[in-house]
Design goal:
The complex is a heterodimer of chains A (253) and B (236).
Chain A lengths: L2 E7 L8 E7 L8 H14 L22 E2 L2 E2 L21 E5 L8 E3 L2 E2 L2 H10 L19 H11 L6 H5 L6 H12 L8 H14 L10 H5 L7 H19 L4
Parallel strand pairs in A: 1-5
Antiparallel strand pairs in A: 1-2, 3-4, 3-5, 6-7
Helix pairs in contact in A: 2-5, 2-6, 3-5, 5-6, 5-8, 6-8
Chain B lengths: L7 H31 L4 H12 L1 H31 L15 H4 L2 H4 L1 H26 L17 H11 L3 H26 L5 H35 L1
Helix pairs in contact in B: 1-2, 1-3, 1-8, 1-9, 6-8, 8-9
The chains are: A alpha+beta (253), B mainly alpha (236).
Chain lengths: 253, 236
């Protein structure tokens, strides 16, 4: 198949950047989207041009690296699919595909389609962890977890931290990401010791790093490649408000 | 705790509470207005308006309402301004993305709450100049028309119906105001509960339905009354 690709090119964080148009003659509908980009890069290299920089790692939908805006949708047109798992069957011969990096003040572009998502790591450092005792592993069955809570926690934990929620949000808010990370701990007994102020600390970091606030449009949920639910944002709000009262009344927390 | 109201969630906590509080005002307001439809002599409406004008409890609630409204406006302005700043639009002309999918992934009302709020505010100012200001401060000849009620009761019915009959285009302004209010509530009601943490998978659909019902009641109710007055005048 023949494709026209409009790709965002930007040499460095300080470069202003621009769209460049490429014609890819021999793309195949059996390729994944990233393989199609690999083909484009081989063509660019053979023409002595700078290949398009894009991030990728596992190529099986769990690392969250392959973050890019494809025709205005994070990770492309298919629901609950990462870019690496996006098949070129989603496109037709002679299609024009616009490929852009995430746009958010807290995700500065490093090069072309690669953005710096360290802000997510900083939010995790602020509260996305549990304390563990060292020594031998405890007997697993001593900690009973209701099935419903376990399922909900697993869904939250399936967040791969790709940043599609921030990219899709009109406010560049990271609430869905933070909500998933807070939920996966808040629902389980292992997360209780730090529970009081976890949401509080992670939201404070999120605000500090320049993510916008949530206006409940629900765009993040629609675009999330892992289908993380807005219900987690409600839980984050609960945990945060609870944390606010805990800091007010209980000094020992 | 002082940080609570500076944080993004804390600000929305107050925004949601004030929003839900303002709905209480709408309930009272629409209940009184409906009397215009049920009694074309205006007696019932005038009695209710007199009660609202003179009852000490309403006198106490009125400034609280004003504070709620101001808080709602100020917080909405701060939140919107911050969000506009953080989403970074300086890449592709004036747009954030060359292509976007906002139309498919979210409702128009949810993306334009501030625009809708501004329309409602403009309407509110016009509305208050029309009625509140005349009843409370400047007075109007229509208010003193004989009503057949005890002395001291103003003929608010004559003032309200007089406006829609004399300046027929004003009905359009009231209908637009009602539609903007309806769209604001369509997203606002469930969104407020979500921001307060009062939602989950199950409640989300229930709250959305409640939001639609609330928005239909208020948009329909407030739009119907001026239209009804106009039609009543044309028919009779």
């Amino acid at each position: 198949m023949k494709l026209t690709l409009k790709v965002w090119r930007q040499h460095s964080p300080k470069d202003k950047g621009r769209f460049e148009e490429y014609i890819l003659q021999n793309a195949s509908s059996d390729m994944t989207f990233l393989e199609m980009l690999d083909a484009l890069n081989e063509q660019l290299i053979s023409q002595d041009k700078d290949p398009v920089a894009f991030e990728h790692d596992c190529r099986e939908g769990i690392c969250g690296c392959c973050a890019m805006m494809i025709n205005g949708r994070p990770h492309g047109p298919n629901a609950e699919t990462t870019t690496c798992q996006l098949n070129m069957k989603a496109f037709k011969d002679n299609d024009t595909i616009v490929i852009e990096p995430w746009r958010a003040r807290s995700f500065p572009v490093i090069k072309d389609l690669v953005v710096d998502r360290q802000a997510f790591e900083k939010i995790m450092e602020a509260g996305g962890f549990v304390h563990m005792d060292t020594g031998s592993a405890p007997e697993a069955n001593t900690l009973a977890v209701p099935k419903g809570k376990a399922d909900e926690a697993i869904e939250a934990a399936s967040c791969i931290g790709c940043g599609a929620c921030v990219a899709a949000c009109k406010n560049a808010s990271a609430m869905l990401f933070v909500a998933a990370k807070v939920s996966q701990y808040a629902l389980l007994p292992q997360g209780k010791p730090e529970g009081g102020k976890r949401a509080w600390n992670m939201v404070a970091k999120m605000d500090e790093l320049g993510f916008g606030s949530c206006t409940n449009t629900g765009a993040c949920e629609v675009e999330c490649p892992k289908g993380i639910s807005l219900a987690h944002i409600a839980r984050l709000n609960r945990e945060f408000i609870k944390g606010g009262f805990i800091t007010l009344v209980a000094e020992e927390e | 705790m002082s940080n609570f109201f500076v944080s993004s969630i804390g600000k929305k906590f107050v925004l949601s509470l004030t929003g839900l509080f303002l709905i209480l005002f709408l309930v009272v307001h629409l209940s009184v207005n409906v009397l215009i439809v049920f009694d074309s002599t205006g007696k019932l409406f005038n009695q209710a308006a007199h009660f609202m004008d003179t009852n000490p409890l309403i006198g106490i609630i009125e400034p609280v309402l004003a504070i709620g409204l101001v808080l709602h406006l100020v917080l909405a302005t701060i939140i919107t301004a911050q969000n506009q700043l953080l989403r970074d639009v300086n890449y592709t002309g004036n747009k954030r993305y060359q292509k976007s999918n906002t139309r498919e992934n979210s409702s128009w009302a949810s993306r334009n709450m501030y625009v809708l709020g501004t329309v409602i505010l403009v309407f509110l100012v016009i509305h208050m100049i029309n009625f509140f200001w005349k009843i409370k401060v400047t007075g109007d000849p229509l208010l003193n028309e004989a009503t057949g009620l005890e002395p001291g009761v103003k003929n608010a019915y004559a003032l309200v119906t007089g406006l829609f009959v004399q300046w027929k285009w004003s009905v359009l302004i009231y209908v637009i105001g009602a539609i903007a209010l309806g769209l604001h509530l369509y997203h606002g009601v469930w969104s407020a509960f979500q921001s307060l943490g009062w939602s989950n998978r199950k409640w989300r659909s229930i709250l959305s339905i409640i939001g639609i019902i609330v928005s239909l009641i208020f948009a329909g109710g407030f739009a119907f009354i001026p239209v009804f007055v106009l039609i009543q005048d044309m028919v009779c």
